[in-house]
Amino acid sequence: MGKGCITATKYFLFLFNLIFFIFGVLIMSFGLWVLLDNQSFITVLQESSTTLQVASYILIAVGSLSMVMGFLGCIGAIYEIRCLLGLYFTCLLLILIAQVTAGVLIYFQRDRVSSTSTCPFTSFSPLPPYFVYSTSRETG
């Protein structure tokens, strides 16, 4: 009974990390596409190109980290390598600590964050002005 549970746990860990790896590839690919494609978002949105470039670099970094974490988890789970599983656990613990720290910092600096952050799409409207919905119901 115990051996079957350990085997099932091993394969669930492998499956979870495989999905994690695939999503990492997708995130990194999207970041690279936004950064390298000349006909994409950066040329369309000239005023926010630096923000978009920073966001694409963040996507590339997050995708790369997800790929490495997924790879460590997959190999460590399938071959039962304690060193890789320990490294995987340590990386997960560091990511958790970083997320909690970022959340606490953002919470205590929320006034500064909300005053400095702007949305580049506030002035962007995909519809021409005559298609914008008016709330006034004036009858002629």
Automatic annotation (TrEMBL):
Keywords: Membrane, Transmembrane, Transmembrane helix. PROSITE patterns: TM4_1. It is found in: Membrane. It is a multi-pass membrane protein. One of its GO terms (cellular component) is plasma membrane. Belongs to the tetraspanin (TM4SF) family. This is CD82 antigen-like. It comes from Salvelinus namaycush (Lake trout). The gene is LOC120065995.
